[in-house]
Amino acid sequence: MAAIDLEAFNHKITAAADRIKDYTYKTPLEHSSYLSDFIKANVYLKLETQQVTGSFKARGAFNKLSILKSQPGIEKGIITSSSGNHGLATNLALKTLGIKGTIFVPEIVAEGKKQVLLQEGATLQQFGLDCLDCENKARETAEVNGVTFLSPYNDLDVIAGQGTIGLEILEKLPSVDYVLVPVGGGGLIAGIAAYMKYKSPKTKIVGVQPANSKVMYESVKAGKIIYEESLETLSDGTAGGIEEDSVTFPFCRDLVDDWIMVAEEDISRGIYTILEKHHKLIEGAAGCAVGALMTNKKMFEGKTVVAVMCGANISMNVLKHIVNEHSKVE
Ligand SMILES: Cc1ncc(COP(=O)(O)O)c(C=O)c1O
């Protein structure tokens, strides 16, 4: 497979930043005194939790849909598929840009995300127990109806949108040694890694996944995208299978330096820690990044580290459970 043209991709990310600037926030990069002391490092949190619709997904959705808006046939609308956050972001982008669309979500979509989607008036269809089954159904429905399918990660314009996070991190913190990024289909890490590896090759990119659903990690080890069953995880945003031909694969294979798999109890501890020490809400995917840091102190000691707090959309029931569990033991 041809090497990724990092220079060309860098231009795509810069163009995306310009395209989405009127619709999305430049999110804060907040220093964490607690985690810095705990790890003996210099730890920052990139707060995509404060992004519109509560996750980084607005970046990719607005970039892609702004491009599609001027393309022939767009008046027929689009179909997309999502574990929740991409759906929330796409719903806002569709409404803002005046495009019609249907959002497929799996049967097991997190209840909190489904409720907000309905409240926001999204046109929803539920299908399948795994994100990949849901994506396949959505793609097939789009083909049958002759409308554009928008993948939540298997799309270079979506990846470029997510890559604008890399640009914002380097603007504020050129000395960054490590960036920890939660990985599902790989769009978020692909964009950030592509930007970083061109502008700051010394910065190491670490992919984090729940040990209960680690398809991209196993795929990179296998040299191709593989199917692996996912177990239940607090990190619903990153869970599930990946399209076989995903364009995110070469980015993950070639640009990610290290991988950390995170146990459920460490994801839970990550969520609780950010709530307790920062008074901020994060969802399970972001909890993976915090859990990865807290269980790998030696790796990050003395380094300047950014953990991407990719989303805040956690269900109340899950949150109550986590708070109860930790209140008992701490
Ligand atoms: C909060 C959150 N973090 C991380 C991810 C993973 O993103 P990607 O599929 O681009 O790897 C998702 C995907 O839905 C998400 O919702």
Task: Outline the structure in words.
It is built from 14 helices and ten strands. The chain starts with 5 loop residues before the first helix and ends with a helix. Strands 1-2-10-7-8-9 form a six-stranded mixed beta sheet. The chain is globular. The protein has helices at residues 6-20, 33-39, 57-68, 85-97, 111-119, 131-145, 156-172, 187-199, 215-222, 248-255, 264-278, 284-294, 297-300, 316-329; strands at residues 29-31, 42-47, 78-81, 101-105, 124-126, 148-150, 178-182, 204-210, 258-262, 304-309. 49% of the residues lie in helices and 14% in strands. Strand 4 (101-105), helix 5 and strand 5 form a beta-alpha-beta unit. By secondary structure, the protein is α/β, with parallel strands linked by helices. Bound molecules: pyridoxal-5'-phosphate (PLP).
